């Protein structure tokens, strides 16, 4: 049931992201990650304001400031110092508790957003003539590994393979991209067809690294394609795309940059929006 809920959420997120994130394809990577990070930071700040107990947070922060002042003024009084330190720990715990509700509210939208951004920044598409390894994982059935075939298409050619590993339930090919665009590779097994998106081009385009199995965590991380059912003879199909080389919008580093920009934007906007954190 949890996996089905994530599938529904991804369908909703894919529809919105398809419109909202379209400018990513024609803007420099550092511009899009900066703008998206800043807007996300301000949006999260607004959500925090209206889902948190602002007066309680303000009161707790004032108490923390008072205890810090007491430590400075009465540093030679052991009893006062210990009492102030205990109050500081209590205040920190209270702030954490007061932040839990808005954090839970923002958790699901943030995860959905990061899943959509990963489609654009986590890898780059194949250049025309470049090769990638495609791996199809089957259910625990050696016959499936032996019989699965890849259907010929004009947008790719098989450079190597198939390499079959029945003991490990997978078969791999090395494919060479021939035509720019987002295509669908078709695999045939037992009179059934299974597809996987295949992206060739340059610049920025949404790339699905994995068509996942029926597992909620994989579905959350790879939202673009529908997962395979639990009873499907094919459990997942993965393509190893090249890494994107950029410290602002490159593989893995885009997430760090996005987080830093969103935090800076949130703290910069905090005085203007009158938010206590």
Q: Point out poorly predicted stretches.
A: none
Secondary structure category:
alpha+beta
Tally the helices: what do you get? 7
Largest sheet: 5 strands, antiparallel
- Total count of domains: 2
Distance between the ends:
35 Å
Oligomer: single chain
Rounded to an integer, what's the Rg over CA atoms? 25 Å
Shape: elongated
Q: From N to C, what is the helix and strand string?
A: HHHHEHEEEEEEHEH
Mean pLDDT: 93
Residue fraction in strands: 15-25%
Number of strands: 8
Strand order of the largest sheet: 3-4-1-8-7
Helix content: 40-55%
Features:
transmembrane helix; 19% strand; 2 domains; Immunoglobulin-like; 277 residues; membrane; single chain; transmembrane; alpha+beta; 5-stranded antiparallel sheet; 3-stranded antiparallel sheet
How are the elements arranged and paired?
Blueprint: H1 2-20, H2 29-51, H3 54-73, H4 78-121, E1 131-138, H5 142-147, E2 149-150, E3 156-165, E4 170-177, E5 181-189, E6 192-200, E7 210-211, H6 216-221, E8 234-239, H7 253-273
Antiparallel strand pairs: 1-4, 1-8, 2-5, 3-4, 5-6, 7-8
Helix pairs in contact: 2-4, 2-7, 3-4
Keywords: Membrane, Transmembrane, Transmembrane helix
Transmembrane segments: 29-51, 88-121, 254-273
Architecture overview:
The chain has 277 residues and is of the alpha+beta class. It has 2 domains: 2-122 and 250-273, no CATH class; 131-239, Immunoglobulin-like, CATH 2.60.40. Helix content is 50%, strand content 19%. It contains 7 helices and 8 strands. The protein has helices at 2-20, 29-51, 54-73, 78-121, 142-147, 216-221, 253-273, and strands at 131-138, 149-150, 156-165, 170-177, 181-189, 192-200, 210-211, 234-239. The chain has a 5-stranded antiparallel sheet. The chain has a 3-stranded antiparallel sheet with strand order 2-5-6, with no helix packed on it. Strand 3 and strand 4 form a beta hairpin. Helix 2 (29-51) packs across helix 4. It is elongated.
